[in-house]
Design a protein that fits this description.
Layout: H1 3-10, H2 18-31, E1 39-43, H3 46-60, H4 72-102, H5 105-126, H6 130-141, H7 150-153, H8 165-173, E2 177-179, E3 183-187, E4 192-193, E5 209-210, E6 216-217, E7 219-220, E8 223-224, H9 229-233, H10 238-243, H11 247-257, H12 259-265, E9 269-274, E10 277-282, E11 290-296, E12 308-313, H13 320-327
Parallel strand pairs: 1-3
Antiparallel strand pairs: 2-3, 4-5, 5-6, 7-8, 9-10, 10-11, 11-12
């Protein structure tokens, strides 16, 4: 698979081909020199998989572990390490760095954030105390990431006949999975995934990530938000925004409400005015001030009107000229526009 195909796999939603994924699991075991697991258990999400493993650990007690020991090192870590060593030897440190930038680096930047969010969500939901938190985190570290290993798979030879062929087969059709001596636990991919142009989790009318068992993550432009927070965005007022104690959630509210609308309806007054525009400031308790420059495009629209733009600038801005100059990356003394646009 090429980079584009692996990007598609990393973001794939809905059920994959279970038979193909299971054959990939068995192949990964054989390539690690292990007997195939006697049982492959499917779950609807990584959360359900971790809960299944927690239950198995509790029920085992003094009895023999029904899953056996984790074989992640043999199935996943060792083949990755060998593949990377081969490329390092072939390309050298500089060549490897360039190869990684050209293949999996950008995909991993967005995928890593998603992986971290899933892990954090599972810990929050399943860990009631410090002991359980440690248990959940250790189980999460035992996981192979399936489709979310796509960034690494596109950087190495992951064809069917390569040492990574089994891992690649699972990644094309399934989500996270856990290899143990006797049992492999495999999670389905999510049902829905919504991200913005920067690859961040983002949805204003529902879960940004949702699995079949009800495990969901809510986010607005990458910012984690509570489940009921999005419903409140449609009923915002300046008073409600000012009353929000969580500074990060208040910023989300301001983005959704609109800084210009907030300034207009919150009684803000201009603190400076010159030929470049008007500087506005609103103080927020426990957070940095909202400071914006109001500028009017001197080039008329086709209908003869002139559009007004609101530019958020650093809270240390003292004049409108300084604010406009900052948006162009220059100092106020160097800003001499021929025409404002």
């Amino acid at each position: 698979m090429d980079q584009g195909s692996w990007r598609t796999a990393a973001a794939a939603t809905g059920p994959g081909d279970r038979a193909a994924a299971e054959e990939g699991v068995r192949l990964a075991y054989r390539q690690a020199g292990l007997a195939a697991p006697g049982l492959i258990v499917w779950t609807s999400s990584p959360r359900e998989a971790v809960r299944t493993l927690m239950t198995a650990e509790r029920s085992a007690g003094s009895q023999a572990d029904p899953f056996g020991a984790s074989v992640r090192d043999a199935v996943l870590r060792a083949p990755w390490a060998a593949a990377r060593a081969r490329l390092h030897e072939e390309l050298g440190p500089t060549g490897w760095s360039g190869h990684w930038r050209a293949t999996g680096a950008s995909l991993w930047e967005s995928t890593r954030t998603l992986v971290d969010r899933v892990r954090a969500g599972i810990v929050d939901e399943l860990a009631d105390d410090r002991r359980e938190e440690t248990q959940v985190r250790l189980l999460l570290l035992d996981a192979a990431l399936g489709q979310h290993d796509a960034a690494w798979l596109c950087a190495f030879d992951s064809g069917d006949d390569s040492p990574l062929g089994g891992l690649a087969a699972v990644a094309r059709e399934a989500g996270w999975w856990w290899p143990y001596e006797k049992v492999a636990v495999v999670s389905e991919r999510p049902l829905t995934l919504h991200r913005d142009e920067a690859g961040r989790l983002d949805r204003g009318d529902g879960p940004a990530l949702a699995y079949g068992d009800g495990f969901e993550l809510y986010a607005w432009r990458g910012m984690p938000v509570p489940r009921d927070f999005l419903d409140e965005l449609t009923r915002l007022t300046p008073e409600r925004i000012r009353g929000e104690e969580n500074a990060e959630l208040r910023r989300v509210m301001l983005e959704h409400y609109g800084y210009d609308r907030y300034l207009d309806e919150s009684g803000a007054v201009p603190v400076h005015r010159d030929e470049t525009g008007v500087l506005w400031r609103v103080e927020l308790v426990g957070d940095e001030d909202v400071v914006m420059v109001e500028v009017v495009n001197s080039t008329p629209e086709p209908d003869g009107t002139s559009r007004t733009y609101w530019l958020r600038v650093p809270p240390t801005t003292r004049t409108a000229r300084e604010g406009v100059a900052w948006t162009f990356g220059v100092g106020a003394e160097a800003y001499e526009p021929l025409r404002q646009t």
